[in-house]
Amino acid sequence: MDDSDDLATLHSEESFWQYPFGRGWSATETDSFLQRTIERYLDPGMAVSAIVVADTGQLAGWAGLSIPAFLPEILPAVEVGWRLGERFRGLGFATKAGREWIRYGFEELGLESIVSIYEPGNTASGSVMRRLGFTLERETRHPALGVGLHVMALAKIVWLSR
């Protein structure tokens, strides 16, 4: 909870939550998110963690693994995801964090596949996913928000052959 002020600053950026909410979050929404994230650490390996810029100590965003319960049609599944503050995008943080979480999922958790989900308009995230080796598994719609989604998938065997 000590990070809530820095996280609230990032979460308040409209572009941080452009996909799927189209607006920044309030401090209350951020505190709820942080509380849920802390609770998810009780499920080993299934939570997001901070992305911190090594030479400055700035909080750049977060990345990690989660169960995409919002999209029951693809369950059971584990998703890798990331979000970065605007000034930290395009610097390789998402690719590096995504790569490490994928490695962790396959090598430490023994997963056989990992998904990553994005809205087609979020071309930057789609590019990161393709760079990491993900391919399109299906197109669908967010059941609550109605927006289009691309579900990308990466099999462990493909990851290990790279």
Fold and architecture overview:
With 162 residues, this protein is α+β, with helices and mostly antiparallel strands. It has a single domain (4-161), classed as Aminopeptidase. 33% of the residues lie in helices and 25% in strands. It is built from 5 helices and 6 strands, in the order H-H-E-E-E-H-E-H-E-E-H. The protein has helices spanning 4-11, 27-40, 93-108, 123-131, 156-161, and strands at 48-52, 59-66, 79-84, 113-118, 135-141, 148-155. Helix 1 (4-11) packs across helix 2. The mean pLDDT is 92.
Descriptive tags:
162 residues, alpha+beta, Aminopeptidase, three-stranded antiparallel beta sheet, 5 helices, 33% helix, globular
List the topology elements.
Blueprint (H helix, E strand, L loop, with lengths): L3 H8 L15 H14 L7 E5 L6 E8 L12 E6 L8 H16 L4 E6 L4 H9 L3 E7 L6 E8 H6 L1
Antiparallel strand pairs: 1-2, 2-3, 4-6, 5-6
Helix pairs in contact: 1-2
Give the domain tally: 1
Helical residues, percent: 25-40%
| Residues in β-strands, percent | 15-25%
H and E order:
HHEEEHEHEEH
Residue ranges: pLDDT <50 for 5 or more in a row? Answer: none
Shape: globular
What is the CATH class designation?
A: Alpha Beta
CA-based gyration radius: 15 Å
What is the level-2 CATH architecture name?
A: 3-Layer(aba) Sandwich
The chain-level mean pLDDT equals: 92
The CATH superfamily turns out to be: Gcn5-related N-acetyltransferase (GNAT)
Annotation field: number of helices: 5
Which structural class matches the secondary elements?
Answer: alpha+beta
Any idea of the CATH topology?
Aminopeptidase
Give the beta-strand count: 6
**Largest sheet data:** 3 strands, antiparallel
In whole angstroms, how far apart are the ends? 38 Å
- Placed side by side, the strands forming the largest sheet appear as 1-2-3
